[in-house]
Amino acid sequence: MQALAHYAAFIAGIGSGKTIAGSVRAWRAAYGYIGHEKILQTPNLGIVTAPTYPMLRDATLRAFLDVTGSTVIRHNKSEGIVELANGSEILFRSTEYPERLRGPSISWWWGDEAALYEARVWDIMIGRLRQFGKRGYAWITSTPKGRNWLYKTFVQDNQDKPDYFVQKASSRDNPFLDRSIVQSWEQAYVGDFARQELEAEFIAFEGLIYPEFSRELHVSHAKPTAFSRIIAGVDWGLVNPGVLLVIGLDSDQRAYLIHEEYQRQRQIHDWANVAKQLRDTWNISEFYCDPSEPEHIKIFNSKPGVRASGADNSVIPGIQAVKSRLVRQADLKPRLFISPNAVNTLAEFESYQWSENRHGMKDEPLKSGDHAMDALRYALYALEVRKPFDVSVQRYA
Q1: Nearest-10 crossing angle of helices 61-68, 18-30
Q2: pLDDT tens string 123-150
Q3: What stretch of H or E contains 188?
Q4: For residues 142-178, b (16+ Cβ closer than 10 Å) or e, as one string?
């Protein structure tokens, strides 16, 4: 990314190397360089963000440290601060709570996987670009997620303005990525979802399965102080993401999606360890799992305290169970709320489509970008077809 524009975006498919590209640009900016020119005063302060702390830790920060190597002289993990040899500092922050990003004046900002951010993150962060009384630079790296704020900012509203620059790349454009990996994605992803994830196209998804879903209505940080029961839905994955969703039920049986695990290339024994940790943290009474892998369920059940079973995989009734919870009730509230930290689940809600059969009828979901949707369906449909356990109220810090 050598653009001199104050606002730049590298919009690219999965596995395209966009996080490495963002890391290189951040490293150079910390040394004063934008493109090939030394523009910024140094030492300076920059901020690097990702949608959640696990994504920041596992991908963004890891890539940055690989790029910067021995030029890092201090890394305070607890405070999320990296200092380079020239005295520049970089703050690593999650965008889970956007208002917490206010405060510091910075010279530059890199936002990784920015399509998963709330729209206000952009407005907050560009207001921070004022260190030394000079206008700073911002760039984002991301795979598109529908036509959300990212599309509006860089394509719809500002694509012809000199301050904005967009570079695009597909997954296959990365010469360092094994071709067999791309081929496995090409086999797994179809239709609009493939165009988005692999070709980095901004897609206006049609035929959405959950048109009832609204971020304004269903996304909330708020949750009750006690749950009557906590369950989880599990969808297996390796090349495709595996997903584990933790869902709490209040005394009125409203569901709150309170935790999301969404990860590619995680082995089943690692998933079982995650399940045990989450069971101990949340006191999860039951894990409702994709029934296609009974051996995986056995491995889950081998962990002390973990109770896992194969979910009912009735697709249309399961979808109806989710739909019924999205609808406003007499008190004008829905029966499903989702944490803004469940960024992948939110993105799937906005892209989950019906597929057409050979007669042109849309009668089943398109089997792409549905991993969180499947995990959610397993858990919520279980509430309709199984009697709830007799458990005491579960409280948490």
Answers
A1: 60
A2: 999 999 999 999 999 999 999 999 999 9
A3: helix 179-188
A4: bbbbbebbbbebbbeebeeeeebbbbbbbbbebeebe
282, containing H or E segment: helix 268-282
Q: Where in the chain is the domain with CATH 3.40.50.300?
A: 7-194
Q: Residue 300 burial by CB count (10 A; 0-12/13-18/19+): exposed, middle or buried?
A: buried
Cβ atoms < 10 Å from Cβ of 228: 16
What CA–CA distances, in Å, run from 146 to 151, 318, 344, 367, 390? Answer: 8, 24, 12, 17, 42
Answer with the residue of higher pLDDT: 30 or 204: 30
Whose CA is closest to 151, among 118, 115, 120? 115
Rounded to two decimals, what is the model's pTM?
Answer: 0.85
Beta-bridge mates of residue 111: 49, 140
What backbone phi and psi angles, to 5 degrees, belong to 91?
A: -95, 135
Tell me how far apart the alpha carbons of residues 33 and 3 are, in angstroms, rounded to a whole number: 11
**CB contact set of 332 (below 8 Å; sequence gap of 6+):** none
Half-sphere exposure of 154 (CA within 13 A, CB side): 27
CATH no., domain 7-194? 3.40.50.300
User: Hey, what CATH class is 215-395 in?
Assistant: alpha beta
Backbone angle region of 87, left / alpha / beta, with phi > 0 → left and psi within -120 to 50 → alpha: left
Q: In the chain, where does the domain assigned CATH 3.30.420.280 lie?
A: 215-395
Predicted pLDDT of residue 355: 85
Label the pairing between strands 255-263 and 226-227.
unpaired
Instruction: Assign 96 to helix, strand or coil.
Output: coil
Alpha helices in 12-95 (DSSP H): 18-30, 53-55, 61-68
Answer for the pair 251, 228: CB distance below 8 angstroms, yes or no. yes
Q: What's the CA gap between 144 and 11, in Å, rounded?
A: 7
